[in-house]
Amino acid sequence: MKFWSPKNVQISVVALITLVGSVSNGNEFTRIFNGKDLAGWSGTKSIWSVEDGAITGVTTKESPLKNNEFLVWDGKVADFEFKAEFRLKGNNNSGVQYRSAQFGEPSAFRVRGYQADIHGKPEFTGMLYDEGGRGIVAQRGQKVRVNKDAKIEVVGNTTEVVSVDLTQWTRIEIQAVGNRLVHKINGKTTVVITDDDEKNRDFEGIIALQVHQGAPMKIQFRNVMIKHIKKPK
Q1: Using an 8 Å Cβ cutoff, are 93 and 118 in contact?
Q2: pTM
Q3: CB 3.0 to 4.6 Å from 118: which of 94, 131, 138, 202, for a disulfide?
């Protein structure tokens, strides 16, 4: 029979702590914006910059957009969690694209796919919008199932739909695991989606931030972070 000495116990405890630490370190949030410049991101330079430590997208009355444009992160996501803070000025809207795809001319920075919407209308704040595809999939406050034929069924409710002052720093969170998608605004779940529409869904793709065509606007993002649950291939 082998007996454990205090020395052996001490070594085992240290090894266990090391093992636990190595597991947790592989499952933590990582900043994908350095707060100084747009390194690791691509977009139209006349629209996107860094201001007061925040990613900043601005459109003007003098130079209206022909279509929505995006600042594209150079990485990809599969199953993941995303969180950031944003604030929006102007009578317009923005959003966070995920598991999405860029299309058209590379310099056009056009994107299609899942979007966690940033919108002044309470029922649209934090909703799921399929940019360039199915349009509104779930409005704020809805639990939705999309069947294989793209039919959308509201199967329940999340939180009460109330107004949010988007001119103040507001927290947005996204969780995507398999075909289950969850959005949150200021810690409250806005939508829960089960997407069984194999033709129109994607399990991996890019992250991108939107400036919308239309009225002049200013959108800012800070503390932009990703936690990979399952990394893309």
Answers
A1: yes
A2: 0.88
A3: 94
